[in-house]
């Protein structure tokens, strides 16, 4: 019996540039809830952004936010990873030196920017729609730093080797879409987020399924018995998942039809 279903968002649950969830997904999450199956939004996005996205069911799901650096269930933070301040500031200095690189620092309920361009400020506020705080000095972030992100348009995979070489031995470094590269404390990834929920809910790998498309989903897919690579998933993601699907909705429908029982 499936008891937990986790899904990445951008490129997985949200495909072809979609910015809002379909009515179908919302209704499926409600049906899963009635069946005793918990839906988990597993994303690089911040908690407040995810709650807005899932507004009709925001109190009925769990959240693996910031690529696993924070886990929230029933309004309670079950787990949070934070950077040591010295390392965080070293990373910030390095990003500021890169002319094309914009940076974003994630706190619990807001992200902090010291935007290099007005276009990026507008992009974060009007398109990404995060809770956003603009700082004249990014080193004055007034809370623990959960995640530090680098934004270079359509360049995430190109810049990844540089950042992995620079900080990969002291931080988790993953691409999170075409333009985003995320750095979190070493213990943070979506897989650890799923482990936190499994321990809290007293459920096993055999009772869990997950959907992903990018490198930041690999650890999550390794934590479940039933993994799916969706859409234009990376080769490594397809290999790790072992199954493919065109859409998350199609698989959720089959799970609902089968009453939560899994049949290959």
TrEMBL record:
It holds the Pfam family Hydrolase_3. Keywords: Hydrolase. InterPro entries: Cof, HAD-like_sf, HAD-SF_hydro_IIB, HAD_sf. One of its GO terms (cellular component) is cytosol. The keyword Hydrolase applies. Gene3D superfamilies: 3.30.1240.10, HAD superfamily/HAD-like. This is HAD family hydrolase. The keyword Hydrolase applies. One of its GO terms (molecular function) is magnesium ion binding. It comes from Blautia argi.
């Amino acid at each position: 019996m499936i008891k937990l279903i986790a899904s990445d968002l951008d490129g997985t649950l949200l495909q072809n540039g979609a910015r809002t969830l379909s009515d179908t997904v919302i209704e499926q999450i409600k049906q899963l809830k009635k069946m005793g199956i918990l839906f988990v939004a597993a994303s690089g996005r911040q908690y407040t952004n995810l709650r807005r996205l899932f507004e009709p069911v925001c109190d009925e799901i769990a959240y693996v936010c910031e690529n696993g650096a924070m886990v929230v269930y029933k309004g309670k933070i079950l787990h949070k990873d934070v950077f040591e301040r010295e390392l965080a500031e070293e990373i910030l200095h390095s990003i500021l030196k890169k002319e094309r690189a914009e940076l974003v620092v994630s706190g619990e309920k807001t992200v902090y920017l010291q935007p290099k361009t007005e276009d990026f400020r507008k992009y974060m506020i009007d398109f990404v729609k995060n809770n956003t705080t603009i700082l004249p000095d990014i080193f004055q972030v007034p809370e623990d730093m959960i995640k530090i992100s680098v934004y270079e348009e359509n360049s995430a995979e190109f810049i990844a080797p540089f950042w992995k070489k620079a900080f990969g031995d002291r931080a988790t470094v993953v691409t999170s879409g075409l333009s985003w590269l995320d750095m979190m404390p070493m213990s943070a990834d979506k897989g650890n987020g799923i482990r936190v929920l499994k321990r809290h809910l007293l459920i096993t790998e055999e009772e869990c399924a997950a959907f992903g498309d990018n490198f930041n989903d690999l650890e999550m897919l390794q934590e479940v018995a039933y993994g799916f690579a969706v859409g234009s998933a990376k080769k490594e993601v397809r290999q790790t998942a072992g199954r493919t699907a065109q859409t998350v909705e199609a698989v959720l429908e089959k799970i609902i039809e089968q009453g939560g029982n899994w049949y290959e």
